[in-house]
Amino acid sequence: MSSPGCSPRGGSRVREPWPGRVPGHPTQPGHLSGTILLADDGRLPHSVPSGTTQNRRPLVTTVAPKPVVTRPWPVRAPVKGSAFARLLRTTDAKQIGIMYMVTAFAFFMIGGLMALIMRAELARPGLQFLSPEQFNQLFTMHGTIMLLFFATPIVFAFGNYLVPIQIGAPDVSFPRLNSFAYWLFLFGGTLTTAGFITPGGAADFGWFAYTPLSSVEHSPGVGANMWVVGLAISGLGTILGSVNMITTILTLRAPGMTMFRMPIFTWNMLVTSLLALLIFPLLAAALFALAADRILGAHVYDPATGGPLLWQHLFWFFGHPEVYIIALPFFGIVSEIIPVFSRKPIFGYKGLVAATVAIAALSMSVWAHHMFATGQVLLPFFSFLSFLIAVPTGMKFFNWIGTMWRGQISFESPMLFSVGFLVTFLFGGLTGVLLASPPLDFHVSDSYFVVAHFHYVLFGTIVFAVFAGIYFWFPKMFGRMLDERLARVHFWLTMVGFHTTFLVQHWLGNEGMPRRYADYQAIDGFTTLNMISTVGAFITGISTLPFLYNCWKSYRTGPVVEVEDPWGHGNSLEWATSSPPPLRNFDRMPRIRSERPAFDHKFPELATGQTLVGAPAGGAKLLTSEADGGASYQEDVAGDRDRH
């Protein structure tokens, strides 16, 4: 090794001193700084002050510094498997959001295939190609996948991609924790679904895992244990993701982004994450106790000590808020889309925020309406609260309709799916009000009426809003527009197929067809309605094909988005950056003065109260007040008096 001060070839090398300084000869106060000159023999002479003239020929020569040559970083040749390695190592919230979305849709396709198999079995009386045990496994895994491996992670798909951009943050607070949460979800979901390849098959005690059906005596096998452990692992990922979302929203907002300037979607993600942080630990505790019963021989849910009712209380204390965990973010998505395609600001911003908080609070107090038929709960109390939760939900409908009222509505594909969401969720909400009444609940409990209500609420909320969000933000995520014709075909197939499937199930339930049954008799009179429902289910399944083809085709050859906002009237900050956004989300950020910063940036005359033809009518004078968050107005009373 070469010693310091020596060149690698063994020759001596002199370190260059700082300009104007000679080693051992500091510049004296009052002297001019000199130029360093090197003698011909390599010795360092004294500095020569600038401006000094010498008559004799100098014995030194000036050595000019070598120019700095910048060389590009070496380009690494891509190696096989490098893309997968990047996915394993990535901590970019946008990339993780897309990974959540793709994985959730893969589970959605698996769960939908299970639904089609069950509907094909129920199309006619008699067992067609499934045994009762196989049917039980399918409806258990269908419910589990759709609720916990599609609906819940798709929330974090939109949250990871959009929340940091909407609040003006470069990334999430805990990027590595965020990545770890995704891999926990993927591992837990894979472990749960892999029960099908075990000798005894997957779990078959229902996605609600009622005890003693879920005990080792009634449901032996490794597949059931994998279900319990897989859900606990996936739930841990949800808890970590919620912590990350809450911290990001509370600590990384851009200057000017106050709480009441945040987009509605970000507000809903904050409330949803708080709700998940409260209830998912309870689910994990209940699952660990069930695993102790099954694997270690504990007696937590022993029927002799009221274990079955204990499980129902624990599960539904998680289960009912979970419905709103997977509903509130999609309320936020619709609240982002409707103003853009109505060409109006959201009506009642603070009312929407208050309704979101009220729904989250009430959702934790109505769990026992799933247990009316047990006779072990206080019916008037839980019935009243079940009716009460319809009030803030109705407030949201009022705000959405008020936003569209007298607006210049444009029915592009995101708006079509948003209107489909409103219609479908309204039907589900109305049947939910019926089920809040104990006498009616006793009549249709455990029938297909409840199945229809549940799918109207969840499918109407989640699937329609998810498709609306994807059509809305796909240009922002990938920089290409989707095919609008294929999107309309997708919408109408989904709308017709869904309502054909589940509308008739209300009548099936009212006629007495029980849910969770693999077979029925021809004399029961259920055949015609079941056949109609099955046809609708296959139409719904076929409707996903144009969507998948549209995404694949547009990702490769779709029209390139060259503007920040392809829709023209975007409100939140993601429409003020490039499409797709850069690594740190923004090259420059507009000033945030309201809850519509991107709109204010594009239309500054409208942001300050001007119209396209001049100042507001009525003699308003523009006042700028930073304390009030931007422009405000006061009536020109004196001007009005002079005019009159």
UniProtKB/TrEMBL annotation:
One of its GO terms (molecular function) is heme binding. It comes from Salinispora tropica (strain ATCC BAA-916 / DSM 44818 / JCM 13857 / NBRC 105044 / CNB-440). Residues 1-11 have a biased composition (Low complexity). It catalyses: 4 Fe(II)-[cytochrome c] + O2 + 8 H(+)(in) = 4 Fe(III)-[cytochrome c] + 2 H2O + 4 H(+)(out). Pfam families: COX1 (PF00115). CDD domains: Ubiquinol_Oxidase_I. Its main location: membrane. It is found in: Cell membrane. Belongs to the heme-copper respiratory oxidase family. This is Cytochrome c oxidase subunit 1. PANTHER family: CYTOCHROME C OXIDASE SUBUNIT 1.
